[in-house]
Amino acid sequence: MRHLSILHVIDSLDPFGGASVACVRLAASLATRPGFSVAIASRKPPQAWAAGAFDHCTLHLWDDEADPPKLDAAIDAADVVHLHGVWDRVLRLAATACTARGKPYAVTPHGMLADWPMSQKPLKKRFYLHTFGRRLLRDAHAIHFTAEQERRQSERRFGHGRVWVAPLINDLTTDLAASDYLPPRSPPVDPAQRPITLFLSRLHRKKGPDRAINMLAYLPGVELWIAGRDNPVYRAELEHLAQGLGVDDRIRWVGEVDEAEKRQLYQTAHALVLPTHQENFGQVLVEAMANGLPVITTRNVDIWREIESGGAVIADPEASAFAHAVKALFEDPVHCAARSTRGRAFVRQWLDPEAGLQAYRPWYESLIRTSSEIT
Fold it and tell me: pLDDT per residue over 251-265, tens digit each?
């Protein structure tokens, strides 16, 4: 077996960012497999990462304001360079260095080229793609998408034929072990006990927390727990919305949670709700399903077809329609429990980490072969 040295490059290792979490999970998982050595080049990671997250990876770090002085040396030592993102300066520096050295590199956009993200600051992003971004994507040996829907939305923006579609690597060891797993919690029958809907994500307009709050106006007997990294300005706006609707007494603001607290929330709530505007993958959805929590989300998630086949409820994003889907789920405890059991089994089969990782070696090797043929 050939030994492969893989360098992952990402601008920021934010433990609450979807791209960062995906990058670290992939790198850490590969690093524990025989035949791989793995490095990550990025800004200094914050302390919020769990202990041991980088135990098997070599880190090349630099301060926010400085150029990455060790990046060229890290690229020289790698067989393949894997870039995570599209817009960041360090990715352009890495791509330019790879091209100059004849080093194969791949790009995982993490949903950044899909329709909704491209509709935010569209002129600035289109200008970038026609200038600096053109070379970054054009010279890549492959573009990696995590779902077919992401590929269909993104591919037309760069005219690149070398694409690969494969789901993210999810660390299912962080989900509940079978011995710890509790049976699905049916919504309470007693009217004095309110069923709990859980919104678990960073507090951002893209995620649709305002839609979740508006949903409560149609569900008088339901609570909403909002967990995730706070944005103080946006939270104040959401609190004002809740007060205006008269639903603030049924909202619990949980704030940031660690892995243990997150798993406890999965076991306490009766359904996860994510009325999002766009999700490249939606890791919280598959985590919840793996923990046996029923999921209700929208077609704005790129993997909605996959998770719907596994028992997730896919609803229209408008508050009344979304509330109707929640109400229908809660009114049928047997059906709710069945979706819980089905979702847990589906995710653990579909996203089995061992099976997913097996696909990466031949992909990386194909990039090396392609690079050799070109040079």
Answer: 999 988 887 888 889
Query: Could you give the CA distance from residue 144 to residue 366 in angstroms, rounded to a whole number?
Result: 13
**What backbone phi and psi angles, to 5 degrees, belong to 357?**
-70, -30
Say if CB 7 and CB 41 are below 8 A apart. Answer: yes
The answer to whether 71 and 97 are in contact (CB under 8 A) is yes
Residues 137-176 as b or e (16 or more Cβ within 10 Å = b): beebbbbbbbbebbbebbeebbebeeebeebbbbbbeebb
Angle at alpha carbon of residue 174, lines to 173 and 177, rounded to 5°: 65
| Through-space distance between the first and last CA atoms of the chain, rounded to whole angstroms | 24
Per-residue confidence at 182, pLDDT binned at 50, 70, 90?
very low
- Global pTM? 0.80
Of the two residues 56 and 353, the one the predictor is more confident about is: 56
Say how many CA atoms lie within 13 Å of 372 toward its Cβ. 8
Read off the tokens for 314.
């896919």
Task: State the Rg of the chain over Cα.
Answer: 21
What length is written for the chain?
Answer: 375
| Cα 71 from Cα 101, distance rounded (Å) | 13
Rounded CA gap, 146 and 154, in Å? Answer: 11
Instruction: Round to whole Å and give the CA distance between 24 and 45.
Output: 11
Q: How many CA atoms lie within 13 A of 12 on its CB side?
A: 11
On whether the CB atoms of residues 271 and 200 are closer than 8 A, the answer is no
What is the DSSP track for 333-358? HHHHHHHHHHHHHHHHHHT-HHHHHH
- Tokens 């590969």 sit on residue: 30
Over the range 44-57, which residues count as b (16 or more CB within 10 Å of their CB) and which as e?
Answer: ebeeeeeeebbebb
Other CB atoms within 10 A of residue 320 CB: 11
Quote the percentage of the chain above a pLDDT of 70: 90
